[in-house]
Design brief:
By secondary structure, this protein is of the alpha/beta class. Helices cover about 30% and strands about 35% of the residues. The strands form 3 sheets. Strands 1, 4, 5, 6, 7, 8, 9 and 10 form an 8-stranded mixed β-sheet that branches. A two-stranded antiparallel ribbon has the order 2-3. A two-stranded antiparallel ribbon has the order 11-12. A hairpin with a 2-residue loop joins strand 5 and strand 6.
């Protein structure tokens, strides 16, 4: 598994991530969602640089221009519900991509974390490149469970996992489970650790609640 940490290089990405961490900024759900979308756009551009391209000749009104084009569009898959705004950023750039959605509910059963995949809606993903969008990578259990189910029934050629904020524990858990698989993890910002409640520190809070309102 390859790992790409994007904030190791200075860019406008830092501003967008900094803002969604700030308590006052988080009071406006529209601004929070918009920044997740913009982060998704930046990550889409970075991921596009690793995809396969082929030669293409463009006919203009004055002549021909030799260029390149994507060989094929990826399939964009979001982990509901927090991944929706990030998903929209990817869709802004990969505007011909097919789309899929997975609901991964995290249940605390007497101290044991259980991941319930309550909903799945996917196109055919065999022999395709996937981008899986989820803003937060904490323990990594939800992502691993989701991918294990996908890989039990499908055979994509490559999987790009895109997350905004990741904890070292979650990154390590993905490496343990997908060390020999064609998986690339893209992280906008790597944080310090998980606390005793498995919250990312310093993190930013619950991305789903901040984007779409608190749930009961």
């Amino acid at each position: 598994m390859q790992i790409k940490i994007l904030d190791q290089t200075p860019s406008i990405l830092h501003q967008f991530v900094n803002e969604i961490r700030e308590e006052n900024y988080q009071k406006n759900a529209h601004l929070f969602r918009n920044n997740l979308k913009r982060i998704g756009e930046i990550m889409a551009y970075e991921i596009s640089r690793s995809l396969a391209f082929e030669p293409k000749t463009i006919k203009t009104v004055l002549g021909d221009k030799k260029s390149i084009n994507l060989v094929s569009q990826p399939v964009i898959i979001s982990i509901l519900r927090a991944g929706l705004a990030l998903h929209q950023g990817f869709l802004s750039y990969f505007d011909h991509a097919e789309n899929g959605f997975i609901s991964a509910n995290r249940i605390n059963n007497n101290g044991k974390i259980i991941i319930d995949l309550a909903y799945k809606s996917l196109p055919n993903i065999n022999n395709k490149t996937l981008i899986i969008a989820d803003p937060m990578l904490a323990t990594g259990h939800s992502m691993v469970k989701s991918l294990q189910q996908l890989l039990s029934n499908h055979s994509p050629t490559h999987i790009h996992i895109a997350t905004v904020v990741a904890a070292p524990e979650g990154i390590s858990y993905l490496k343990q489970n997908f060390s020999n698989l064609p998986v690339t993890l893209w992280v906008a910002s790597k944080d310090d650790h998980l606390n005793e409640k498995a919250y990312i520190i310093p993190g930013l809070g619950d991305a789903g609640d901040l984007a779409y309102g608190p749930k009961q």
